Amino acid sequence: EPFVADEYIERLAWRTPGGGSRGGEAFDPKRLLEEFVNHIQELQVMDERIQRKVEKLEQQCQKEAKEFAKKVQELQKSNQVAFQHFQELDEHISYVATKVCHLGDQLEGVNTPRQRAVEAQKLMKYFNEFLDGELKSDVFTNSEKIKEAADIIQKLHLIAQELPFDRFSEVKSKIASKYHDLECQLIQEFTSAQRRGEISRMREVAAVLLHFKGYSHCVDVYIKQCQEGAFLRNDVFEDAAILCQRVNKQVGEVFSNPETVLAKLIQNIFEVKLQSYVKDQLEEHRKSDAEQYLKNLYDLYTRTTNLSSKLMEFNLGTDKQTFLSKLIKSIFISYLENYIEVEIGYLKSRSAMILQRYYDSKNHQKRSIGTGGIQDLKERIRQRTNLPLGPSIDTHGETFLSQEVVVNLLQETKQAFERCHRLSDPSDLPKNAFRIFSMLVEFLCTEHIDYALETGLAGIPSSDSKNANLYFLDVVHQANTIFHLFDKQFNDHLMPLISSSPKLSECLQKKKDIIEQMEVKLDMGIDTLNCMIGQMKHILAAEQKKTDFKPEDENNVLIQYTNACVKVCSYVRKQVEKIRKSMDGKNVDTVLMELGVRFHRLIYEHLQQYSYSCMGGMLAICDVAEYRKCAKDFKIALVLQLFDTLHALCNLLVVAPDNLKQVCSGEQLANLDKNILHSFVQLRVDYRSARLARHFS
């Protein structure tokens, strides 16, 4: 523990009798002092003893340090001597090794010709046996030494190739015959080993056959036997993947060039099994059923490319991507060359059938529609002329637009885009996709939507028709919904195929032209508003009576507003709701503003036709207030402002003569033409009284 002086003194005082630290003892300073003095003397003696011990240890340490330093110096000298000996030994070893290598080279130079001579002697011996026509050597008669016999006959076969035919024709034929027999035996041995599953024996035989011409036949036999029993299920693609995976594990243990053997197996599978399967599946429907043919082609090509992706995991050589692509192309080349023509032909006939089936279900015979361009349509809408479609026709409430038809057409086109993406060459993909898009535009936009719009326009009744049914808004509503679906398919399925090609601008322009042409025709449908106004006129003419605003009994008027007002407001609210459902975006506000302005003009002109008593004027104000409530449903500021002003004008029908000028100078009427104000004042039954005329003038 660390030394603390205070604690040490305290313990010393505690142990000393009379130190005063223990309870019950009298403090004795002299005794304590005496104890301290004695203890100090003991400490001094102890200090001197320890000091002497320290000095002795220091001297001993210095002596040992000198001895250690001397010993280290001696070891360093010994190490230097040992290092010098090591260098000398290393040089000697290097010298000896050089001598040994040189001697080895000399021995090899002597031994190699000797071995060759021995080998040549053996070959000459075996060659003589063939010359004599009798094979006596054990290597040729013992079936267990077939490996050695194969090595000898392979070398003799090479030698025989160099011999002149006229002198050695017989021996050459014997060697060739033996070469062929051994080759057949080795292949047979390989086949048997493969059937027994003896991988090591297969590897030995394959290594021997590697130098024979029949090595490729050995590989063919291996490939053939691998496929025995491998294609028993209906799914040839899955069977092929499993087979290749199994062979991939085994082929490296058998052959020295496993990637070549595996590639040859895959080539055999593609060119024999898959090509035959694809041909059977496609040729059956190629001429008789285009729909099934395209489905099968897409399915087979997809499954083949998926199989190719799985095979990419294996080692097939340097450029396996190109190798597999060529195999796929060799199978499908004859089908892909004219794919797009089959696709377009099928899409055209299928789309026409879908439309015709729909029109037949409606018992409708399609009429020929105008072929004028966009500029012609714009000129017709500018002049507000009637459509040149002949007399108005009655569609009986039919819009001739079907969501089921649209979904079928879009589904067929979607599948066509998917097939196009998969089956088209990358360089032809944008062009082919554009052709499919053109088919969609022709049958969906032109033959279905555009035809329905033309028919709807032709079915718009004249403005003076009574009880006319306005079905054109239903056509607009459905056309709007359908075009949203068309636009979604354009973005989801066509854009990815053409986004990086020049065809993008062409497709966008075609889409823009279609939209513009339809919008022009929808604008021409504004004639529907004339029909709405015409219906309101019929309601007002039939329901509004002159006595409504000049009641016979001024004191007995029980109604809040006229019956004509009720029916007109009810009709207008229905049409506003219908317009909101039929259109979207800014089109809603544009059409409602046009209808609201015409609605205001109609009510304004209608009110000008009557004379108003005091109570009749109050009733007119109530009617206009109701019309103004109806105008709020339009949610168009201009329309509401017009009816606010009309309501203020109606106040001129009931205001006291003395207050006419004050009312006319009010905020809402101050900016109106004086003739308009005068025309409303003239409608009062008391206008001709001198007092009223004087006040207004």
Task: Describe the 3D structure.
Residues 40-78 form a coiled coil. InterPro entries: Sec10-like, Sec10_HB, Sec10_N. With 697 residues, the chain is mainly alpha-helical. The chain is built from 25 helices and no strands. The chain has helices spanning 5-15, 29-132, 138-141, 146-162, 165-196, 199-209, 215-226, 236-254, 258-283, 290-311, 320-336, 339-361, 374-383, 403-423, 429-458, 472-498, 503-524, 527-543, 563-582, 586-607, 614-632, 637-650, 660-664, 674-681, 690-696. Residues 371-375 and 377-392 have low confidence and may be disordered.
Layout of SSEs?
Layout: H1 5-15, H2 29-132, H3 138-141, H4 146-162, H5 165-196, H6 199-209, H7 215-226, H8 236-254, H9 258-283, H10 290-311, H11 320-336, H12 339-361, H13 374-383, H14 403-423, H15 429-458, H16 472-498, H17 503-524, H18 527-543, H19 563-582, H20 586-607, H21 614-632, H22 637-650, H23 660-664, H24 674-681, H25 690-696
Helix pairs in contact: 4-5, 5-6, 5-7, 8-9, 8-10, 9-10, 9-11, 10-11, 12-14, 12-15, 13-17, 14-15, 14-16, 15-16, 15-17, 16-19, 18-19, 18-20, 19-21, 20-22, 21-22
Mean pLDDT: 81
Largest sheet properties: none
CATH 2nd-level architecture of the domain at 544-695: Up-down Bundle
As a percent range, the share of helical residues equals over 70%
Structure annotation, total helices: 25
How is the CATH topology of the domain at 544-695 named?
Answer: Methane Monooxygenase Hydroxylase, Chain G, domain 1
Strand content: under 5%
Low-confidence stretches: 371-375, 377-392
Q: What is the global morphology? A: flat
Please give the alpha-carbon distance between the first and last residues.
Answer: 126 Å
Structural class: mainly alpha
User: For the record, what CATH class of the domain at 544-695 applies?
Assistant: Mainly Alpha
How many strand units?
0
InterPro entries: Sec10-like, Sec10_HB, Sec10_N
Protein name: Exocyst complex component 5
Family: Belongs to the SEC10 family.
Pfam family, one: Sec10_HB
